Amino acid sequence: MAGRAGLHSVTGGLYFGTGPALQAKSRTRSPMIPIKTESAWRGTADCRNCGIRDMVLFADLHEDDFNLIHAPIDDLEYAGGQPVVRLGETATSLYTLRSGMIKLVRNTVDGRQRIVRVLRSGDVIGLEALMGPTYDSDAVALTNVRVCRLPLQVIQRLNRETPRLHQRLLEKWHRSLKEADDWLAELNFGNARQRVAGLILKMRSTTDAGIATLFSREDMGAMLDLKLETVSRTLSAFEREGLIEPQDKQGRLYRVVDAERLVAPKAGAE
User: Fold this and answer.
1) Rounded Cα gap, residues 164 and 61, in angstroms
2) pLDDT digits (tens, 9 = 90+) for 172-230
3) Cα radius of gyration rounded to whole Å, the chain
4) Is 165 exposed, middle or buried (CB count within 10 Å of its CB: 0-12, 13-18, 19+)?
5) pTM of the complete model
6) Which domains does the chain have, with CATH numbers?
């Protein structure tokens, strides 16, 4: 599995190591950076934006709970297009998404690939590992991503010994199922214009609702059950009408100029 790994655990602390990063050219390895349990819990140093904090699984854990962690937690990076986990692969870990976006892909009965959900920072990959022996979808990086890989044995131990985490995991599991159902229901309703508009609004930044990050037209088509040409034509129409403005040359970053008009029905739209 591609990525950056190198984290050793010792009693009372976690030690993050830095291996070859996505664009690293140097052959020398960076020194191990010690991050004690206490600093990891409080979110200092390298854990400031990590999924180990309240945004993911461990919000309800106390300081002493982290002493139960004795297996390595790896800090990994993947380039866009790389798989993080594969459908049917033996499930050995959960992953918390620290940055970037990941698509969950499943195959339809007629052999087509269907994107059932897009994960963003704070989401958890592989929750099905708690319920069964294998992953139930491909998780593929849409952008360069950074994840923390949590061995299943760590989660299982915390789950047994920490009721707070058990409840948190159940909530996460049920919410992930609902979000996947909602994603498919909301983005597969209406004509092409309504579907593309709905995706744009869903992909707006949590910190700036005026900015939406999209992906390749092919991926968008797989999410919306539309042909690539239809997606491209619809986005071009939105631009001509002044509803969105491209912010980069790749056509991935857009400013939403008029959200109300974007979702308003248009006569004669396909």
Assistant:
1) 7
2) 777 777 777 777 778 888 999 999 999 999 999 988 999 999 989 999 998 898 999 99
3) 20
4) buried
5) 0.72
6) 7-186 (2.60.120.10), 188-263 (1.10.10.10)
